[in-house]
Structure formats: C-alpha cells, structure tokens
Amino acid sequence: MRMVVVILALMAISLIVIASHTLPEGIEDGFFTPLVWQQSERMLLGAFLFLFCAGFDYNKLREASWILYALMVLSLIGLFFTDAIQSVHRWYRIPLLNISFQPSEYAKLVVVIVLSWFLERSQAKAHRWPTALIAATIVGIPFLLILRQPDLGTALILFPIALVMFYFGGIHPFVVRMMSWAGGIALLLIASIFLEVIPLETVRPWVTVLLKEYQFDRLDPKTHHQKAAVTAIAVGGIIGKGWRKGEYAQGGWLPTPYTDSVFPAFGEEFGLVGLLLLLSLFYALIYLCFHVVTITSDPFGRLLSAGIASYIAMHVLINVGMMCGLLPITGVPLILITYGGSSVLLTMGALGIIQSIYCRRFMF
pTM for the complete prediction? Predict the structure, then answer.
C-alpha cells in the first residue's frame, strides 16, 4: 500500500510538469493537454501492468528467463535492419498503433531476470571464474548491442545493476572489487572534468577511442543544456516561481523540459521545497524496494529485487546528477516523471514484480 501511494504521488507530479510545458499555442489555460492525455493513458496501462505483475507468481519467471533473453537480443539486433529515427537505431515504429517501442528499456529488466536465475543456479560455484565469465557475458551482449545503437546512457545503467547483483550473488570478490574500482575511477575522472580539475582536451585522445565525438562533447560542463539545467534550478529559489510561471523553462531556454530536463523544470516552478519533496518520494520508493531485498529468503527473489532496486536507484541518481551539473547528460529518464511510454511501462512492471516478491516472502 505504501508503494502505491508513492507511485501515485510521483505520477501526479509527472502530469503537473507535462501539463505546464505542453500547453498548445494559442490556448492559455487547461490541464489536460494532448501529451497529458497520452501520458495518462500510458500510466493507466502501467497500473494494469503493475497489478498483473503483483498478482503473478514471480517464480515462473525462471522458466521464461532464457526465452525472454533470446527475444531481447533478437529485438536489439533487429533494430539495425530498420530505418534510423533521429540518426539512431533505438526504436521500432508500429504504424497501426502509431507508437514506438524501445527494446533497450526492457533489456534492463530482462538482464535482471536472467542474472537472477543464473546466479541462483550457480550458488555453489558462484566464486569460481567460469561463473563470473558467464555472468559477465549475459550482461555484456546487450551492453554492446545497446552501445552500438548508440545509446551510452542506457548501456551504462547495466553496469551498476550488474555490480549490485554480482555482490548479492556471491560472484568472486576480486571481480566485484575490480568493477567497483573501475566505476569509482570513471566517476572520479568525470567529476574532475566537470569541476575543471582536468582540462577536457587533455583526455580527448584516450576517451575518443571508446566514445564518438558527439558523446565526448557531452563531457563538456559548459554545454548549453548543462548550464540551462543548473540555471533553471537556481532560478526557482526556495519556493519556486509557481506553476506555469517559470519564465526560464517557459521561454524555451531549457531544452526538453518535460523529458530529459523534467527535474530542473519542476525545480524552477516549485523551488527547493518541491525538489526535496520529489527526492523524498524517490527515497521512499528506493527504500521500499531494498527493504524487500532484506526480508526475502528466496535467493531468486532476493537477487531479482536487488536488481530492480538498483535499476530504480541508478535512474534517479544519474538523472538528478546530470541535471545538477555533476554528470554528463546522456538521456537517462527520471522514472515515472519523464514523458514517455517505454520507461513508464517497464518501471511499473518492475515495481509489480517487487510487490509480487513482497507478497510471497513467507512462502520459503
């Protein structure tokens, strides 16, 4: 019940932000803009998906894990045989329904399910190197395919998810330590660039070996989007400018205020007080997810809930970090707030699985 209250509160905030920044030209008032209606429909579908997954016995996911994985890999490969949308291969267009489908969003949940199944089966030999190699391959295949689209932000989400699940799954401590060190060094390097301790051009020869030029340019803390996001938060002050009174975002200075930049757009209108409320709701959601990890005795359920909890936490931390000028902007959505269908449906399905695990916690 507590999780449902938090989810509804986050959805309400999402609709408030979308309504504020999608008012059709020539119309001065009204809450239910076309995009608000679209997002409401997606949220309603997400609610049904949540209830279905909550009532569904999560243990049956074991049987379907490799089928889901095969379908996920095939869908990611199939993207490269479709026409590019906005110069990237990330979506399938479904003309009859007039919707788009982004396989990489669902790939994250599928990886969590398959890793949970594999690590549960490998408990007795989890500390062995072959187990670590197979687990890394399970994550590595979708990681490389998503990176090739290219979609760096979504691909990088898989790294912390894998790290958390490797830790709970008992993978060799050396592997977990090396992953932790690699992640820590990468974050330190990015922080040093954003704090201008290390000049951006100094690392260009090495970083561009791995990243495309436009991806490297996102490491620049002085890009318009980066500065605009921080400015919008600052302009909001303590209590904000008020709903639909944020001159900075409403004036078009803040790019994509109801998608990537939804956090600073909300901050300008509702200030520090509003952002603290939003972050408190996310804290409650993440806490409830990790609480399920601690009370579940079933290894599969514990690994599954740990993976989903880390998925939720990483999306929040990365999006907020991007908008506060601490991380490069890579298009990672703020779950349940950002406008979009794939992210809402995936998140609601994942939270439904968490609820299913919680309801069946005494069965083992």
Answer: 0.89
